Amino acid sequence: FNLKKHYKIEHEKVSTICKECERKFPNSARLRKHIYLTHEFGDYHCDHDGCDFSSTCRLELFNHKSAKHLLLKKCEFNGCDVVVPRNNYHVHKKIHQKSRSFQCSWPDCGKNLYDAKSLKDHVRIHLNFKRYRCKWPDCGYACEQRTNMITHIRIKHFKLPHTKKRQLELNISMDSYPNPNEYIE
C-alpha cells in the first residue's frame, strides 16, 4: 500500500473552490484561510495615527497598511519623535532600552557602546584591522567595510563618478564594467 499514491488518486482530484472568486485550493483549510483573509466582511479601520482609511474587506486593509505604513515606524518611546525604516527600528530602540554599558578599554578611549558587537567593531578601528583588500594589481588598498571597498574600486580603478547619482546623470551604464566584487579579497 502506497499512501502518497492513494492520496494523489483519491484526494487531490477533489479540489476546493472559492465561491466568491472561483480560485482553487488543495484543501479546505487553505480555502477557509483564503476566505477569512480575503472575503470576510466587516468594518475595518486603519489604526495608524492620522489615517482615516477604512474598508469592509480585511484584505484591503492589510494591503493598505502594507503599502502605506509598514515601511516606516515611529518610535514608541515617550518624548521621541523619530521615524525610522521598519527594518532598522530594532537598532534605534537600543538607544532607549540599554545604557551604553559596553566600554572600550583601549588607552585614552573609554567610549561607551550599546552592545558587544558594536564594541567589537569599534575595537577594530584601534587595531587598524582591515577586513577587505583590493585585488587590483599593485593597489594594496584595504578597508573595514565592503561598501567602502566597492566605492574605492568604482572610483579609483573603473574611473567612475563619485556618486551613483552622477553616474546616472552622465548615462554611464555598469553593464560595460566588471563586477567590483571580483576585485575584493
TrEMBL record:
One of its GO terms (cellular component) is nucleus. GO terms for biological process: positive regulation of transcription by RNA polymerase II. It holds the Pfam family zf-C2H2. The keyword Translocase does not apply. Residues 16-39, 102-131, 132-167 form the C2H2-type domain. It comes from the Eukaryota. GO terms for molecular function: DNA-binding transcription factor activity, RNA polymerase II-specific; RNA polymerase II cis-regulatory region sequence-specific DNA binding; zinc ion binding. Keywords: Metal-binding, Repeat, Zinc, Zinc-finger. This is C2H2-type domain-containing protein. It comes from Euroglyphus maynei (Mayne's house dust mite). The lineage of its organism: Eukaryota, Metazoa, Ecdysozoa, Arthropoda, Chelicerata.
